[in-house]
Amino acid sequence: MSSFETIAVNKLSKLELNEPGAQNIWKLTTSIMVDTSAALKSLVNTLMSPNKSCGSIYMDLEGVNLSRHGSISLIQILVPSCEQAFIVDIHTLGKTAFDTLGSEGKSLKDALESETIKKYLFDVRNDSDALYALFGVRLVGVVDIQLQELATREGDKHIVRGLAKCMEQEQALPLLALSQWQSTKKEVVKMFDPKLGGTFEVFNARPLPQILVDYCVGDVEFLPRLSAIYESRMNRRWSKKVRIETEKRLEESKSLNYEHRGRKKIFGPKSWRFPPKGGKKSTAPAPAPASKKGKKPVAMVTASAPKEGEKPNAVVSASAPKEGKKSTAKVAAPAPKKGKRPTTIVSASAPKEEKKSTAKVASSAPKIMEKANATVVASAAGVPVSFVNPSQGTLIQPEVCATRLYLNIVLC
User: Fold this and answer.
1) pLDDT by residue (tens digit) across 238-277?
2) Which domains can be identified in the chain, with CATH numbers?
């Protein structure tokens, strides 16, 4: 070893190099356990302060059979404006958690029902069910992030995704942080999932184990990132759809027949799964397309049967034919009532110069000793119109007037 290397080693040996201890690289916010009246008032003041609005909060709930049929153990509330996560101990505080008033005379219930505070949750249904049924809390101003994901997803929208899948799909965290977040979730799931030998009663253990605190904070800590990703992809049309479907979920969760479990909960909104093909059909009649050169423009209308004492009328407006072509309008009118006259009116536009325009009318045969009357009105003078007498088979030529042409044939 050279003298230079020896000097460098001696200097390094004198330095105190402490190895960093194990760190939770994904946990960025501090958490506060709200299990006393004083802590609860502080939280309410933070949420309802008139001088400093919190704007938006991100929530999640834990409980035993979380629904109207179970209980609520914890409510996690992330307040980004103060970079803190509050874990409200509902198991300990009970109903007082929602009734305790802050310095402004407001409660946690008022905050959750406030329209000025936007609340982001991932699948609000069971959380809303439990809050409303057990404590009479109606969530207002909710954005369902699960629906945001479905709205921005390309292609199939049949099945909704869970939070873990969305975090992995969107890479909302660096790879190492995501891996640690997933590891914590898997470990806690084993603790509370009955299918894996666990029990939801672990959320009622006091003091709450640190791993459960980390799990609760992790479920809300990265919701702002996730929601921001989806909001950046949505247009106004889909944002409105998310609001509508979120309201439907809230109303559904408060209904008497709501089921907090079941396979149907994995499906997205029906209107998103089966969108109408080609849009809605127009009820307005479509205009007849312009005929190509060498083709006859034809407009066909079938008139409905008239009421007794009324005349059956059918009106057709045909476009002008191309030069050298005939314009034809066909109308099928129903048989008239006894003692009534069938009337069909056809208005044909003027043909090109020195061209013929023909309007054919098929009128139902009148009853014996009844009169049949067909009237044809041409819009321009000098337009010849022919009519075939159905009883004699003869062609009748009408008289041409200076401005209009009238044809009136009476058959006995």
Assistant:
1) 999 999 999 999 999 999 999 999 999 999 999 998 887 7
2) 30-273 (3.30.420.10), 360-412 (no CATH)
